[in-house]
Amino acid sequence: MSRYDLEYRSFSLSLAEPLETASGTIESRDGFLVRVSRADGAVGYGEATPLPGWTESLADCEAALERARDALDSGDEDGALEAVDEAVAARYGVSLALADLAASSESIPLYRYYAPDSLVARVPVNATVGDGSVEETVSAARDAVERGFRCCKLKVGRRSVEADVERMRRVREVVGPSVELRADANGAWDYEEALAAIEAFDEDDVALVEQPLPAGALEGHAELRGRGVGIALDEGLLEHGVDAICEARAADAVVLKPMALGGLDVAQQVATWVDQFGVTPLVTTTIDGVVARTGAVHLAASLPDPPACGLATGDLLAEDLGRDPVLFENGAAVVPQAKGLGVEGVWAE
């Protein structure tokens, strides 16, 4: 007999405004809310929200969830995760639900399920500024700083390098020298464009550029390092893996997206791995619903001394799966201390 039952429901969450990135425009997030229940009434929640270019398709995600459900129905608990194969979004949904249930049963917050000796109240976060006009970019960055954010990440790469340099320069003038600035190009530049942008960004004390070159350009990223602006690999982490990145000395940081990596357990292993090589792990979401976002907050809380992470993305959605248990104050996420994820009211009967 199976100890667990797995159910899932589809959803579609519209963004408050379309998010323009170098990889394309994101208008909604479509996925599946996952619930794993036990005969004693204990439940755990997960979320599988695929993102084109990063994970399996929506159809493949649903098929993987069906396989996981069949495995649990047959009493094969270990096989439920094996059944999702390479469907990373589905694996995140199932593994998160199982971890939420386990942590709730132990009456501990989820981050302590992964880091039992930790007691973390807050983790720093960055504000994400879309790839808008100079005026829109400056306005969004000013608003973020007024709300307490001490780190802003600007989406770049859809415009000319000169235009992005001007956007960054104007933001620096407005926010002052004490706010950390980052850029995210989503692999939009060639080497000469990236080099020109990085040299200009260095003058404005930009801390980090995420994925300046396409994912395959490992040697190019290695050559861009050491020019005053840190290099972070995002898509490149999925393309090459940790060993190749560290061997090539291609990154100062790697971006950990639990949805794209297949779960908090996998992301934490990667974080521990890269830390051994002096590479900084940066936790971000893929603009997910509240269940997956809160999971990412717990992941960041399980890591020692995390830098500002991309977790404050809930306001990009026009609607959500339920109430957000994470408060954001003075540029930090207040980590839920309730048992498990701390998310309630997402599965209305």
TrEMBL record:
Recorded metabolic or biological pathway in which this protein acts: Quinol/quinone metabolism; menaquinone biosynthesis; Quinol/quinone metabolism; 1,4-dihydroxy-2-naphthoate biosynthesis; 1,4-dihydroxy-2-naphthoate from chorismate: step 4/7
GO terms of biological process kind: amino acid catabolic process; menaquinone biosynthetic process
Database matches in InterPro entries: Enolase-like_C_sf, Enolase-like_N, Enolase_C-like, Mandel_Rmase/mucon_lact_enz_CS, Mandelate_racemase_C, OSB_synthase_MenC1, OSBS_N
UniProt keyword annotations, A-Z: Lyase, Magnesium, Menaquinone biosynthesis, Metal-binding
Ranges of residues in domain Mandelate racemase/muconate lactonizing enzyme C-terminal: 134-231
EC code: 4.2.1.113
Catalytic activity: (1R,6R)-6-hydroxy-2-succinyl-cyclohexa-2,4-diene-1-carboxylate = 2-succinylbenzoate + H2O
Molecular function as annotated in GO: magnesium ion binding; O-succinylbenzoate synthase activity
SUPFAM superfamilies attached to this UniProt entry: Enolase C-terminal domain-like, Enolase N-terminal domain-like
Gene3D superfamilies, per database record: Enolase-like C-terminal domain, Enolase-like, N-terminal domain
Residues of the active site: K155, K257
Keyword Lyase attached: yes
PANTHER family the UniProt entry points to: O-SUCCINYLBENZOATE SYNTHASE (PTHR48073:SF2), O-SUCCINYLBENZOATE SYNTHASE-RELATED (PTHR48073)
Similarity comment: family membership: Belongs to the mandelate racemase/muconate lactonizing enzyme family. MenC type 1 subfamily.
Name of the protein in question: o-succinylbenzoate synthase
Naturally occurring in which organism (per UniProt): Natronococcus jeotgali DSM 18795
Gene: menC
